[in-house]
Structures are given as C-alpha cells and as structure tokens.
Amino acid sequence: MIFETHRLIVRQLQESDQSAYFDMMGNPNVMSLVPREVMSKNDSDKHLAKFIKNYRHQTGPKVWAIELKAENEFIGLCAFLKNNENEDEIGYRLREKYWGVGYGTEITKGLIDFGFQHLNTDLITADVYVDNLRSVKILEKFFNRDIEFFNAEDKCTDRRYKLTRKKWL
Description:
By secondary structure, this protein is of the alpha+beta class. The protein is built from six helices and eight strands. It has helices spanning 18-25, 28-31, 41-57, 103-117, 133-142, 165-168, and strands at 3-4, 8-11, 62-68, 73-82, 88-94, 123-129, 144-151, 156-164. It is globular. The mean pLDDT is 96.
C-alpha cells in the first residue's frame, strides 16, 4: 500500500487489474475528458504492463491503482508526474461507474497530503482539460488557477493549477 484515505487504498498496479483497467481506458466517456483516444484491449494491457514494469526499474512517473477499501475493487488510477516545467503534478482517472460520489475529491486531497508529507515537495500542480468540468470543480476546491495553455499532445486547452506547501499546511 502506498497510502490510504477514508474509503480508498492507493497501491501498485497489478496484472489482475487488466479487466477493470480496460473498462476505464476503453471507455469513450472517460477518455474524452483527457482527451485521448480509447484504447483497444491489447493497447490497454500493454499500457498497464508498462507501469508495472516501471515499478521494478523505479523509472517513469509514479502511477498507482485506486481501490475501494470495502470491496477491494479497482476504481481508477492516480499519479505523481512531472509537468513540462519539471514541477510535481498530480493526476487521477476514475472508471465511469465511480463518478459523482466524491472519490475524485477524496483522491485529490490524499495525493496532496501524500506529496507534501511523504514526497517532501514544496509545490504541487495539476493540469486539466478545461472542458472536464467535474475535475475543474474538484481542483478549484484545493488549488489556485495558474495559466491556460494549448496542450499540443492532446490537442486541447488545459488549465494549470498550483498549490504550495505553505498554503496547504
């Protein structure tokens, strides 16, 4: 286990997550909020395997599974990445059937706490596609707006949010 919140456990991804992972990565409603193309089952399995391999080599971003404590059910991903300015950035993605019940807010707060307390970072950022209104609403609970910019990789306008350790603590 990496960390836990009231209802969630954050842990390393596992091969046994393949089916639920594809339920998320192959869902156009989920992927349109990134926005990215949906993945085939084969591409989803390869994507998951890449993150699992990164654990062994301790390379790449920190990408973890989000699991419901009560049901031991994979409900999504969360991550600590580096943005284009090499600043710590959080991210998350949830399976559609787990939207609208507060897990996004809960995992965002958990990632912020973890970043400041265990990764010892002084600044956390989050980038979001401006049309992803649910995530915008979540980020605005915790972060300050910074800039809007064109994300060439995803071909969309993103907004960056920032939060300092001083403001959080």
